[in-house]
Design brief:
280 residues; alpha/beta; four-stranded antiparallel beta sheet
Length: 280
């Protein structure tokens, strides 16, 4: 599948080593155990009762990375005696390969993967019971792109399908509790001194551009655009594409946004043409 220049930038960003991605590491294992506990609690939500009565549940993990969220959700369904089909998708193929290997070992089943842009998952030509976006991936998408993402996701879900987004409210945590930092130490240890600096702001897309610099390799500067989502607007956009929306709160300002039953009123084909506001 085609990968855009913006997606290549994201690949470069992750290659800087800001966030650990190795699923075998203690950091990732802790995240995995936490995700399992969250999903065990989520199974009590009434929207999942129909899924718990099925013999097999299919899960599409978008922006999966190495699949911590998808594998954790699959494990919880397996604990309930339900067979699972799990597909990991991302633009970072090396992470997908590692996640498929690790996930297959953990679950005892084959975990598939496909390199694809999350805004084009409808091109898979398959329908799933659940689409999951775990690990706070929304900042990679501005509002225009989030609309396209959800349109694509809604087209690859079954009529009673559920879209799940693991998200936090950045307006509350960053702008209210912490304050926006023009210069931010992202990682400082014996291997890296990595900073991010404010570079620009795009009023039409609402994105902040930040420059990521590893001081041990200052010739490599990665410019990344980020949208700082709040929970309210993510839920409102989800409501456009799903008949009902709920949030399963894990801590204050954070939880799983749930979209239930795709409306299919707005098709991804309707959003092919770039709006004039973004052309100038």
């Amino acid at each position: 599948m085609n990968v855009s220049e913006a997606d290549k930038t994201i690949e470069k960003l992750y290659s800087l080593g800001i966030w650990p991605t190795d699923p075998y590491s203690e950091f990732s294992q802790k995240r995995f155990r936490e995700a399992i506990e969250i999903f065990r609690g989520l199974m009590r939500h009434d929207w999942f009762q129909g899924l718990l009565s099925k013999r097999r549940v299919s899960i599409l993990d978008i922006c999966a990375g190495t699949g911590i969220g998808g594998v954790a959700l699959a494990k919880v369904f397996l604990e309930e005696g339900i067979d699972i089909n799990l597909l990991l998708t991302d633009i970072r193929e090396d992470d997908l390969k590692l996640g498929s290997k690790w996930g297959s070992e953990v679950l005892g089943i084959d975990v598939g993967y496909t390199k694809i842009d999350s805004r084009r998952v409808h091109e898979l030509g398959r329908r799933f019971d659940i689409a999951l976006m775990y690990g706070s991936s929304s900042p990679h998408f501005d509002p225009w792109e989030m609309v396209r993402l959800q349109a694509s996701v809604s087209e690859c879900l079954l009529d009673d399908g559920i879209f799940m987004m693991d998200e936090g409210d950045r307006r509350y945590t960053i702008f209210y509790r912490t304050g926006y930092a023009r210069v931010l130490p992202e990682r400082i240890d014996s291997e890296k001194v990595l900073l991010s600096l404010h570079a620009n702001y795009d009023f039409r897309r609402g994105t902040f551009e930040r420059a990521y610099i590893d001081l041990k390799n200052p010739s490599e500067i990665v410019l990344v655009e980020t949208f700082f989502w709040g929970l309210a607007e993510l839920m409102a956009i989800t409501w456009l594409f799903f008949e009902d929306v709920d949030i399963y709160e894990t801590i204050r300002g954070r939880g799983l946004i749930l979209g239930y039953k795709p409306r299919r009123g707005i098709k991804i084909e309707d959003l092919r043409k770039q709006p004039r506001a973004l052309l100038s």
